[in-house]
Amino acid sequence: MTIEENIFKRAEVDFTKLKKYGFSVSGDAMVYEKSFMNGDFIAVIKIDRSGKIRGEVYDEVSGDVYLPLRVEEMTAGYVGEVRAAYIEILQNIREKCCRENYFVGVQANRIAADIKQKYGDDPDFPWGKYDDYGVFRNPDNAKWYALIMTIDKSKIIPTDTGKIEVLNIKLNEDKIPLLIKQKGFYPAYHMNKKYWITISLDDTLQDDVIMQYLEESHEFTQRKTNKQRNHNS
After folding, report:
1. Which of 98, 116, 151, 157 is deepest in the core (most CB within 10 A)?
2. How far apart are CA 26 and CA 33, in angstroms?
3. Rounded to two decimals, what is the model's pTM?
């Protein structure tokens, strides 16, 4: 993951704010330039129409790209100071020109928004080490009904690699053997495969289809609560 990808991984660019911040139009992109480190370097930040952000740092004297910036092992001394100053520029752009998202992918954030609209629930992130694992719970009993997380594709598709966001939900156990034969459904990653299933959030399945299954998962968290209410009434 690049410096830029790491800084902006859960950010959504608000294009209406870029010009006011100092970005200018250059072809199909918005470009921002800033001199830093007492004028020794220039940061050039480009944001394309899809919101993807790229950046380069140039040595002001030579005009060349400052390659040590990308060497992860070089964290101390002058290189570390340049990297820290560049990161500060990126973080300021994120703060002033972006909206915060819970997740990285577009579909994952759409599903999170649908959950919020339907049930009023926001995800919580209980594992500090895995800060992209978001759990949705029924607030009446704290039971899970959905988990969105970023995993390596090899965890669900042994022949593939790369990162993918997925959704884990609980379904009637009779449905799962049939669903995992269909595209977009997989045996549950890291959960009981008899009761849970994993769904890829890469637009293989439409949002409304996913929400139908998620509704069933949510119903499992209500059943005991409803029985208790009926018993007490």
Report:
1. 98
2. 12
3. 0.73
